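Subject: Glycosyltransferase family 2 protein

B.,
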Amino acid sequence: MPFPHTALLPAQLAIVVPCYNEVENVPMLVSALDQALAGIAWEVVFVDDNSPDGTASCAAQLAQSDPRIRVVKRIGRRGLSSAVIEGILASTAPYTAVMDGDLQHDEQILPEMLRRLKDGAELVVASRHIEGGDNSGLANRWRHVLSDTGIRAAQYVMPHRISDPMSGFFAIRRSTFDSLLPKLSGAGFKILLDLAMSAPVGTRIEEVPFVFRPRQAGESKLDVQVLVQFAFMLMDKVTRGRLPTRFLAFALVGLIGVLVNVSVLHVSKIAGLNFSQSQFLGTYAAMLTNFFLNNRITYHDKRLKGRRMWWGLALFVVTCSVGALANIGIARMALHDWGHGHWSRSSAAGAVMSVVWNYAVSSTLVWR
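Prediction pasted inline below.
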């Protein structure tokens, strides 16, 4: 691809594009940026989470003939927010824009966003919810509900008035980003909210309208899981990190495991099994539930797949069996102390002990 002389100048604007399975969109995005940013010294940093479709390889091939294209390929790490942070740190440009790699963000407004930063704004948000903006490009009504729910929740707790805190399209001064970096959680999918809630009152934030376009290729990543992680990140920011995001997620999964344990216990009791047998079945049902939910939600950025998932499950079961023995022992002690009429409370006491043990094992051995 031929490129202008500005490609040989230090980048004034870096466009960070976190991506996963966007191989079809990479060439089209580069071409769109080339047209939209004519006369501006820019570079694009694709941060790819080891996409199986060859996204990183496609971007690297384009980079061989265009010095404005850079690639960061992450192995063993996942998550949009952390990808954006790594992408910004990989550039020395004084201004950075963040946009998705699916062509739904309008690259034509990048020059206006850059102009606003140069005129004094510290953070410029591309909004679908101010005059001139539109979010009709969301795939269906369900995705509209997810997006709108997240926006209302964020606006309720955040210190700044932003019409579209769920936007993944924004631009920021590098100096502002550096000042906020120590406060960022880096978790989940909504880095803009992380930045906005970390920014002190008085930070100059401006919005520009944009029309959210329909996706041309690939699949949307917006689902219930994104909203759950979004909620955890909100709690993390509201509590100022006193309750870390991963702990909150693990605690919720552990609570679900306790409910599974108690439910299996009652079914087993009806089936005629004694307490120890029922507690054994309930414990392992909870263990399996905890593993798969944690792999999907709590440790999404370290999610085990394929053969690694089954090895991880085996390691989880073996090591957590120690916790299971403690679970059963504590439950029996509680049953003895509280009397034979309190199976549920006895079972829950043992399950809580198991959750604590499982957290230690999960963090150090399974999802290292």
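The first strand starts at residue 13 and ends at 19.

T.
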